[in-house]
Amino acid sequence: MFYHNKKLQYFTPPEKPDPVYAKKMQELIGGTFGEMTVMMQYLFQGWNCRGPAKYRDMLLDIGTEEIGHVEMLATMIAHLLDKAPIKYQEDGAKDPVVGAVMGGSNPRDVITAAMNPQHAIVSGGGAMPADSVGFPWNGRFIVASGNLLADFRSNLHAESQGLMQAVRLYEMTDDPGVKDHLSFMIARDTMHQNQWLAAIEDLKSEGFEETVVPRVAYEYGKNEFAYQFWNHSEGEESAQGRWAKGPSMDGKGEFQYVANPQPLGPEPQPPQPDPKLHATPQTPQQQDNGADAPPAVRVERIG
Amino acid sequence: MFYHNKKLQYFTPPEKPDPVYAKKMQELIGGTFGEMTVMMQYLFQGWNCRGPAKYRDMLLDIGTEEIGHVEMLATMIAHLLDKAPIKYQEDGAKDPVVGAVMGGSNPRDVITAAMNPQHAIVSGGGAMPADSVGFPWNGRFIVASGNLLADFRSNLHAESQGLMQAVRLYEMTDDPGVKDHLSFMIARDTMHQNQWLAAIEDLKSEGFEETVVPRVAYEYGKNEFAYQFWNHSEGEESAQGRWAKGPSMDGKGEFQYVANPQPLGPEPQPPQPDPKLHATPQTPQQQDNGADAPPAVRVERIG
Amino acid sequence: MFYHNKKLQYFTPPEKPDPVYAKKMQELIGGTFGEMTVMMQYLFQGWNCRGPAKYRDMLLDIGTEEIGHVEMLATMIAHLLDKAPIKYQEDGAKDPVVGAVMGGSNPRDVITAAMNPQHAIVSGGGAMPADSVGFPWNGRFIVASGNLLADFRSNLHAESQGLMQAVRLYEMTDDPGVKDHLSFMIARDTMHQNQWLAAIEDLKSEGFEETVVPRVAYEYGKNEFAYQFWNHSEGEESAQGRWAKGPSMDGKGEFQYVANPQPLGPEPQPPQPDPKLHATPQTPQQQDNGADAPPAVRVERIG
Amino acid sequence: MFYHNKKLQYFTPPEKPDPVYAKKMQELIGGTFGEMTVMMQYLFQGWNCRGPAKYRDMLLDIGTEEIGHVEMLATMIAHLLDKAPIKYQEDGAKDPVVGAVMGGSNPRDVITAAMNPQHAIVSGGGAMPADSVGFPWNGRFIVASGNLLADFRSNLHAESQGLMQAVRLYEMTDDPGVKDHLSFMIARDTMHQNQWLAAIEDLKSEGFEETVVPRVAYEYGKNEFAYQFWNHSEGEESAQGRWAKGPSMDGKGEFQYVANPQPLGPEPQPPQPDPKLHATPQTPQQQDNGADAPPAVRVERIG
Amino acid sequence: MFYHNKKLQYFTPPEKPDPVYAKKMQELIGGTFGEMTVMMQYLFQGWNCRGPAKYRDMLLDIGTEEIGHVEMLATMIAHLLDKAPIKYQEDGAKDPVVGAVMGGSNPRDVITAAMNPQHAIVSGGGAMPADSVGFPWNGRFIVASGNLLADFRSNLHAESQGLMQAVRLYEMTDDPGVKDHLSFMIARDTMHQNQWLAAIEDLKSEGFEETVVPRVAYEYGKNEFAYQFWNHSEGEESAQGRWAKGPSMDGKGEFQYVANPQPLGPEPQPPQPDPKLHATPQTPQQQDNGADAPPAVRVERIG
Amino acid sequence: MFYHNKKLQYFTPPEKPDPVYAKKMQELIGGTFGEMTVMMQYLFQGWNCRGPAKYRDMLLDIGTEEIGHVEMLATMIAHLLDKAPIKYQEDGAKDPVVGAVMGGSNPRDVITAAMNPQHAIVSGGGAMPADSVGFPWNGRFIVASGNLLADFRSNLHAESQGLMQAVRLYEMTDDPGVKDHLSFMIARDTMHQNQWLAAIEDLKSEGFEETVVPRVAYEYGKNEFAYQFWNHSEGEESAQGRWAKGPSMDGKGEFQYVANPQPLGPEPQPPQPDPKLHATPQTPQQQDNGADAPPAVRVERIG
C-alpha cells in the first residue's frame, strides 16, 4: 500500500518555457529507459520477489522512489509547456506555405510547427506517458523474471542507458533550472548504477548466483561450444579482444577463437505441408487435394 | 554485405511434433529476449559503432551468428507444427461446447484449441516473428546507444534473460531432439554471457570507460546524492545489503542509508493553463474566455 | 514523493492455484481498464491539474490507492500461478499430438496447454504488465486532458468498464479466496463510480463547467446542427429514444429527428497530386514528368 | 449492409494549404478520440447490441454518420497538403545544417522540416489512419462491452475528449475554411454529448440500469467499503469535495472520509518458486536443483 | 456520406456455438488481412484518389461493401460465442490444477481454458477489432499511396492472403452454417482477386502505368544493376528460375545471373561521434571532453 | 548460417550532413515497406518454404541481399547525422519561445527543433529500427503464408510501395551523394519488381498455381457471386472499368455489374446474452439475475 507526500523529491523550475525541449524530455518519462520503465520494473520485481526480505524491501524502496521521479519530470514538463505558441503568429499565419519569402521565419512559428502537437491537443499542456517521438510507454519495456541476478543485470543496463540519456539531455539545454533539476537526477542514477553493481555482488556473496545465470546452464548445455568465439564476419580484428583468448570469465573454461566457423547441422528439410493449409509443396501434384480427407488417415501418418 | 550457407549452424529434429510447444518456443524467436532481438541489437550496434575495429568486427561476428539462430529455431518450429491438428476430430466436433459429457475430451482436441491459431491460419505451419502469445517483435526491443559500455551491459542483460528462458523451455519438454537442439543454444548463450563480461573488462582495460557510464556524470551530477540509498518503503531490511554501506562500487564514495527520506523540493505549482486549451484553471472566472485574444498580449505575458 | 507500506490494502489468498484463471485475471492489471490504467490516469491527471487544490489532492489520493491495487492483484496472481504445470505429464507427454486415443486427456495437460506461456517462460511465476491475452499495457490507454469535466467523465467510464470486468471475473471462479478478494475490489469500484459522479456534480456546483464540455463549443459551433439526430440507418426505431425528441440535456435546444439526412457538402475534389509524388492524376499526360522542375515554378503555382 | 453517397455531409475547403496543420489535424482522424474511434466504437456496439431495437438502431445511425466524418476530414487533409514543400528551397538546401548564418531561415523550409514526413513518402499527399504524431489508430482505442450503460458512459467520455480536441484545433488556425468546417463538427459533437446523456437517461427510465453498473455489484461487493474515500495523499484538501461527505450518488449510502487509511491485509507471502523456473528462492540451498524431478512428487506437493 | 441497411449482405447462422472457433475467426475481422484491413484500405484509397472518376467510384464501392463484411463476421462471432462456458464445471473446478487424475478432463473445461478470455471479460460475448491472438487491428495494416498501380498490387496481395485464410478457416470447421457463410465470402474474395487483376490491366490500357512503378525509376536508377539476380546464398538452384535468364518482365532488359556477387562499396567509415553524445570513439582520449565547447568551433568543423 | 563481408554492397557518402533528411530516410529502414520488411519477409518465406529448391534458394538469396541494404542505409544515416545540432545556438537559446522577434530564426535551430530527438538521445547519432515518425518496425509488417503465389504477390506489392518511397525520397534531396546512393537502390528495386513478376510466371509454368489463389476456392465458394461487381456507392462510373464487364481474369466467368445490390441476408438476431456477462438484454426483467445459476441448466439450453 502506498502514500503520497505533496512535496517533490527535488525540483528547480526552468528559467523559461521551451516546448520543443519539453517534447524531447518526454524520453525521460515514457521512453524505453524512462522513469516509468524503472518505476514499473522495480515494483513488479519487488512484488514478484520470493528471495530474502532485504532484496524485496530494496526493490520496493527504489521502485517507490521512481514514482516520484515521474512526478518531478511531469511537473518540469508542465512548466516547459507554459504559454506554448499553439498558433502561427498573425502575420506569419497569413500564408503558412510560402510565408514572407523576402523575410525569415518567425522563431515562434518554428516552435509552433515542431513541438509535439499532442502536448496542446491531447494533454492541454501536461506531460504524457510517451517518449520523445510520442510513442506510448508499454509493458514490454520492463522485465521481472523472478531470477534476481538476471534482473539486477537488467536494472544495471536500464540505469546505464537512462543516465546516458539524462546526460545527453543535460547537454541539449542552457536553461539553468533544467540543468539543476537534471543534475539531481544524474546523481540519483549514479547511485543506482552503483546500487545494482553492489546488489549483484551481494547476491553472489550470499551464495545465490555465480557468473552465468542460471547456474543449471552448465548441466544442460553442450559445454564444448560454451567458450568458442565464432568469426562470422570477414577479417579477424575480433581476435584481439579479451573474449577471444585467456580464461573465460566464469573461470570454467578457456576462450577459443574459431576463425572459420563451419555449420554443424544439415540443410533444413521442413516437413511437407498439410494439404489443408494450401502451402506450396514439392510438386504440383501434392497440391490442393485438400478437400476434407478422413482424419483417421492423417493420424495414421503421424504414428 | 552478407552471404548465406544452406546448412544450419546446428540442428536436431524433434522426435515428434508438438504444436503447443511450438507456440511456446516462439518466445525464443520473437520475444523481448528472443534471437531476433540479439540479432538486430548486435547488427545495429555494429553498424553504428565508431570505436576501435575489434569491437565493430566482434559485434558483426555475433550479430551474423544470431541470424543463423533465428534460422535454426524457425526450422525447429516448422517440424514441431508438422501435422498440427487444425480441426476437431469428427466425433468431438459434433458438439464442441458440451462434448461427450460422459467421456473425457480428446487430447488432440486440446491441441486444436490451445495452439497458436495463426500458426495454421496465417503462416501455414511456419514460424512467425512474434512471441509466445503472438505479440509481434518490434524495434523498441533493441538498443544501440553508441556508447559501448552501456550497450555491452544491455547485451549481458539480454543474454542473461535469454538463457534463462531457453533453460525454462528446456525443462518444459521431454522430447530428446528438442532438448539436444536447445542444449547447443544454451552453450552458445553461456559463451555470450562470458563474452559480454569479457568485453566490458576489455573496454575498461583499453581506457574507454570506468564504473559509471558516462564518466561525465560526476561532472554534471550533484554528487552529494550519488551514494545515498533512500528507504521509501516501511521497514529497514534493505539496510542489510551491500548497497547500503561500505565503499561505493566506483570507489569514489561511501554508501549511506537514508532511513527517513524527506522531500527536498516544494509542492508543485504548475502554471495556469492557456485559456485556449480549456483546461480547468484555479477559479471558474479564468475559464472559457478563450475566444481569440490578440497574440501580442500573450507574447507580452511571456517576457 | 511516495512511500510504501509493506502490508496490502486487502488480501485473501486463493484456496488453490489456478494458472488459467491467472491468465484471465491479468485483464484487471494490464487491460485497457485494468488497475494500471486507473493508477496512471489519476496520477497524470493529478500531476497535470491546475484547478483548485481539492481536485488535485483527490486525484493523487485515488491514484496512490490504485498503485496498491496493482500490488494486490500481482500478489494474487503469484499465488494462482503456484505450481503451475509447465510440462506435460510423463505419460501424456509421450505423444502430445495424438495422445492416448482411447483415453481422455489429462486435465493438468489442458492447463499446461492453455495457460499464458509467458507466466512460466518470461516472468517465472509472477504477474506481468499485460492483459488477459498477453498484450502489454500502454500509455495510450489513459487520458489526462487538463479539463476536469472531460477527465472525470473518462474516469467514470473507466470505473464502469472496470467494475463490469471485475464482476465478470467474480462469476468466472468458485474459489472462495479469489471471490473474497474481488469483493473488496468491487466495493472500491462501487465507491469510485459514486466518486466520479460526485466530482462531476462538484465541478458544476463550483461554477467550472456546464453540460457540454468545453463551454466555448456553443460559441464556435454551427448551433443549428447541435440538436439534430440524423437517421443514417434504414428504419426509424431510433426515433423512439430520449435523444430524438424533447428538450436537449443542456437545456439550450430541442432534439430534432432528421429521418432522411441529406449531404450538405459537395463531391470531394482533392487537388491534383504533386508530380514529384507519382500519385495517379486525372490523365496519364500529367504523370511522371516529375524530374526536378525548378522550385520557383512551384512556388508561383501556390500564390 | 452499407451504401455510399458521393457528396460529403458538410465541407468547406481551406483558404490555403497548411501541411503542418494537416499533421496536427490527423489527431481528429486517427487519435485516441478521433473519428475512427467513435465510428468503430458505435458500429461494434451496434453489431454486438442485444438490447431493444431502438438502441441498436441508434448506435448504427451514429456509427454510420461517423464514417462520413472520417471522409470529411480525409478530404480536408488532402487539401491542406496541397503543394506541400517536400524539398528544401534551392538556396537553403545548399547547406541544411548551418544555412545562411547571417540570414533567417526560409519559412517554407520550416514546413519541409516539420511536416509529417509520411504525408509525402507514404501517402502521397493523403490522410492516414494515424494520429498527430503518426502513431497508428488501433483496436484497443474502442470499447463495446455489451452493457449499454457502461458503453454510453464510454461514448460520453469519447465525445467530451473529442469535442475538446476539435475546439483546441479550432483555436490553432486562422483559416476561415478550416474554421467553418470545424464549426460543423463542433455542433455535431455538441449533439453527441447531449445524445449520450439522453441515452443514459433513457436506459434508466426503461428500467435497465441504475447508478452503479452493473447492478449486481452490491450483491457481490463488501459494501462497508463502498462509500469510503481513502486519503492516501498528505493533506486533507480532498475532504472538501462532494465525494467526501453527504449521501452517495446512488442513494444507497453516505460518503465517509477516511483520513488515515490503514492496510487491511497482511504482508505478501508469495509462494516459493518452482525450481524448474530458476527464480531466486528464500535461501541458496533451494536453488538450481531443478534437474528433472519426477512429476509425481510435484503433484503430491500440490494436494 | 454513408447509409446503413439493417439486413446483412449474406448470413447463415452456425449450427451450434463454438467459442474456440470464434477466437480463430477473429483473424478474418481484425487480422493483418482481415475485413477491417480491406475496408479501411479501400476507403482511404478512395478518399485519397485523384485519378479518373471510375477508379475512385470503384474503390468506394468495394470499400463500402467491406464494411458490411465486418458486420457479417461480427454477427457470426456473436452466435459462435453464445453460451460460452466462462467457468469450469462444478466438479472439475474443485481442483483445476490436478483435476480428477484418474479421469479425463471435461471438454467443456477445455473451451473455458482455451477461448479468448476477452470475449467474456471485455466484449461480453461480442466480436472485437482484433485478430485470432487478440492483437488489435492497427492503421499500419493498410496502405494508400496515391499511386493506383502500387495500390492495386497491394489490394491483390491483401485479397490473396485473405482468401487463403478464409479457405483455411473453412477447412477448420465442420459446422454447415459456418461453411455456408464462408463460402459466400470465398466467392466474393474470388471476385476481388479478379477485380484487382482487371483494374491493373485497366490502368495500363488507359496509359497510366507500365510494368515497373513508378515509371520514373528508369530515369533515376543505375540501370546496369536493374536486371541482375545476385546469388547471395550458397548453391545455384536459384539460377533455374525465370528471374535468372531471358528477357525481363518489363521488356527493357535481359535477366543476368550473378553467381558470385561482390561488394561494390567500401568498408563503412561512420564519422566520429559528437563528444556531447558520449558514444565510444576511436580512442579513449577523444572521450568525455564533452563539457560545453563553444558552438562556433563546431560550426567551423562543419564547413 | 550466415557470413558477413565488411564491404558494403554499394555506397556513396552524402556531400554534407542533413539530420532532418536522416529522420525521413528512416522510412526506408524501418517503415512498413522499408528494407527490414523485405529482409525479414524473404528470410521467413525462405525458412518456411517447402516447395522446390529453386524457390527456397532464391528467397534466401534476396533475403540475404536485403540484410546488406539495411546496412547501407544505416551507414548513410550515420553520415547524415554527423554534427547534428542538438542544442539551440547560444543567442537563439536565450529565449526559445519568442526568439528575436525582430529577426528571423536560425536555420540551425530549425533543425534542432525538427530532427528526430531519438537520433540524439537514444541512438547517439546512429540509425534505428523505426520509420520516419519514430514508430518501431514490427513483425506484423511481414507475411510468409507458405503459399508461394500469395507470397510472391505480397513481395511484388512490397517492392512497388518501397520503390515508390525510394523515388519520393530521391526527389526530396539535392545532395549528389544521397542521390547516387539511392539510384543504386532504385535499380535493385526495379530488378525486384521484375523478379517477382517472373517468379509468379515461373510458379504458373511449373503447374503450381493458376490465377486465383488458392485454387480450391472454386470448390468451396458460391461461384454465382464470384464474378459480380456490386455498386455500393451512388453513381455508376465504376461500370466503365475492365472489372465490370468482359471475361473474368481467371477465364472462368464473365464480369457482371450489379447496379443496385440488395442484401441477401436477414436482419441480425444475435443471441441473448449470458446473464453472467451483465450485457444489456431485450428487457430489463432478463437482467442481473446472474447470481450463480446451476450450470446444468445452461448446458441443457445448449442441446
From TrEMBL, chains A, B, C, D, E, F:
InterPro entries: Ferritin-like, Ferritin-like_SF, Mn_catalase, Mn_catalase_dom. Residues 280-289 have a biased composition (Polar residues). It holds the Pfam family Mn_catalase. Binds 2 manganese ions per subunit. Keywords: Calcium, Manganese, Metal-binding. It comes from the Bacteria. The keyword Metal-binding applies. The keyword Iron does not apply. Residues 238-303 are annotated as: Disordered. Gene3D superfamilies: 1.20.1260.10. Mn(2+) 2 binds at residue 66. Ca(2+) binds at residues 57, 61, 231, 233, 235. Mn(2+) 1 binds at residues 35, 69, 159, 192. Its cofactor is Mn(2+); Ca(2+). Belongs to the manganese catalase family. This is Manganese catalase. It comes from Nostoc minutum NIES-26.
